[in-house]
Each structure stands twice: as structure tokens, then as C-alpha cells.
């Protein structure tokens, strides 16, 4: 399976600032996804990022708050804008590889964000 | 609204015992995925179930899917401490022709020596 890395692995940020999280894959993938996992909770899909097109956001998530870039088939970024303590979560990217069993996703190690 | 519920949310069990985790979902789907998450870690793919009646087994874990009942089970046989983790099921609601996951609530499993 693909090797997925995320940067930073963790960060502590002040409210009102923005943080950009990077997701790098060691092979070309079509579908990349961004999830949020709030403390002690399950995962919630933020958006789907396809190369060459605008990201598709899920209900409750908007581009102004979570802008996403997908410049090529191995890289994506998620920005958490104008942060508040409620944004403290783990943010994970995942990918669906071309050779995956239908729909199977592989997850990156996550970025643990704390907003003070 | 699509809901994916797991039962139980917390499970503490003795080593050597058997138990089943249930995953119920509220929409039509024939794609269901099981993941494991260790504390502070990312998600590890366990099983992919793609049709009614699908059954997959790996070691002490066995997963099955009943699409008519909208139910998947993860059965643990003779639990060992190393199985302590949080287990998530995820359902693809088959919308818009693209794959996407709706995750279950998670089951936190603790196996006691």
C-alpha cells in the first residue's frame, strides 16, 4: 500500500491564526480525502480532493474555513483558517489507490492540532 | 441522514473470551470497511466487505456483512491483550458514484490479562 506522510505531526496554535497541513503520498493517487477526528470521537469527512478540480466539501464544512489544494497526484494541503479552540482535533488524510479493493482507503499518520 | 452506529461503545473483556462488535447502518450499501486505531496512532485497514454474506477472517478477528439487515459484525475469538484498540466500521453510502466513508461511532476494546 501507499506510504503516506503528513506534516506537521502536531502543532499548538493560537486562536485566530491559520495552519496548513501537508499530505504527501509516495505514489500517484486519484482520490485523496481529509478527515477530522475530534478528541475521543469518530472520524468525519471534511472533503474529497481530486487533482485538477475543486475539492468537494461535506455538509458543515466550507471552503473559507478549510481551503484545500491538490496540485498533483501525490500531494494535497488542508488549511485550517481563523482557528478557535473548537478546531482542536486530529486531521487525517487518506488515499484510495488505483489498485485498491473497491473504495479501500489508507490513512496517513495524522496531524494533532491544539488551539489555545 | 445516514447513521452508522456501533455497539458496544466500550468493551472490557478477559483474555481468552469471545465477543462480537456490531455495526448497524441506515442506508443501502454493499461496501463496508473495518479499521483499527491504536491510541495516538492512525487507522489500520482490517477488512473490506463488498457483498451480502461476505465473510473475512484474519487471525482472531472475523468480519461479516448482511446487507439486507444493514449489519456487519466483527467477531473476536479468544481475545489477547494485543487486540486492545478502538475499532471502527465505515460504510460507503454509494452516492454520486464516488467512494466516501461514513464512519461508525467506534468501539473501544480493552482486553484484560
Describe the model:
- The complex is a heterodimer of chains A (116) and B (113).
- Chain A has 116 residues and is mainly β.
- Chain A has strands at residues 4-7, 10-13, 19-25, 31-37, 43-50, 56-57, 68-72, 75-80, 89-96, 106-107, 111-115.
- In chain A, 0% of the residues lie in helices and 50% in strands.
- In chain A, the strands form two sheets. In chain A, strands 2, 4, 5, 6, 9, 10 and 11 form a seven-stranded mixed beta sheet that branches. Chain A has a four-stranded antiparallel beta sheet with strand order 1-3-8-7, with no helix packed on it.
- Helices cover 0% and strands 53% of the residues of chain B.
- In chain B, the strands form two sheets. In chain B, strands 2, 4, 5, 9, 10 and 11 form a six-stranded mixed beta sheet that branches. Chain B has a five-stranded antiparallel beta sheet with strand order 1-3-8-7-6, with no helix packed on it.
- In chain B, 32% of the residues are buried.
- Chain A binds chain B through residues 1, 31, 33, 41-45, 48, 92, 94, 96, 101-110, and chain B through 31, 33, 35, 41-43, 45, 48, 50, 88, 90, 92, 98-106.
Write the layout of secondary structure elements.
The complex is a heterodimer of chains A (116) and B (113).
Chain A: E1 4-7, E2 10-13, E3 19-25, E4 31-37, E5 43-50, E6 56-57, E7 68-72, E8 75-80, E9 89-96, E10 106-107, E11 111-115
Parallel strand pairs in A: 2-11
Antiparallel strand pairs in A: 1-3, 3-8, 4-5, 4-9, 5-6, 7-8, 9-10, 9-11
Chain B: E1 4-7, E2 10-14, E3 19-25, E4 32-37, E5 43-49, E6 55-58, E7 61-66, E8 71-76, E9 85-91, E10 102-103, E11 107-112
Parallel strand pairs in B: 2-11
Antiparallel strand pairs in B: 1-3, 3-8, 4-5, 4-9, 6-7, 7-8, 9-10, 9-11
Amino acid at each position: 500500500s501507499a506510504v503516506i506522510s503528513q506534516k506537521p505531526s502536531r502543532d499548538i496554535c493560537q486562536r485566530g491564526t491559520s495552519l496548513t497541513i501537508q499530505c504527501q503520498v509516495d505514489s500517484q493517487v486519484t482520490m485523496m480525502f481529509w478527515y477530522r477526528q475530534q478528541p475521543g470521537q469518530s472520524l468525519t469527512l471534511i472533503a474529497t480532493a481530486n487533482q485538477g478540480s475543486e475539492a468537494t466539501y461535506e455538509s458543515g464544512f466550507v471552503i473559507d474555513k478549510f481551503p484545500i489544494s491538490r496540485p498533483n497526484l501525490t500531494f494535497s494541503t488542508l488549511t485550517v483558517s481563523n482557528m478557535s479552540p473548537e478546531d482542536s482535533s486530529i486531521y487525517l488524510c487518506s488515499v484510495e489507490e488505483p489498485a485498491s479493493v473497491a473504495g479501500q482507503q489508507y490513512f496517513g499518520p495524522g496531524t494533532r492540532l491544539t488551539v489555545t | 441522514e445516514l447513521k452508522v452506529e456501533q455497539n458496544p461503545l466500550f468493551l472490557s473483556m478477559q483474555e481468552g473470551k469471545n465477543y462480537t462488535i456490531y455495526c448497524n447502518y441506515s442506508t443501502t450499501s454493499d461496501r463496508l470497511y473495518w479499521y483499527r486505531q491504536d491510541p495516538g496512532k492512525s487507522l489500520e485497514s482490517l477488512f473490506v466487505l463488498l457483498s451480502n454474506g461476505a465473510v473475512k477472517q484474519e487471525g482472531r478477528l472475523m468480519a461479516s456483512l448482511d446487507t439486507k439487515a444493514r449489519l456487519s459484525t466483527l467477531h473476536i475469538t479468544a481475545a489477547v491483550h494485543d487486540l486492545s484498540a478502538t475499532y471502527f466500521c465505515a460504510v460507503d453510502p454509494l452516492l454520486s458514484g464516488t467512494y466516501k466513508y461514513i464512519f461508525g461511532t467506534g468501539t473501544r476494546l480493552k482486553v484484560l490479562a
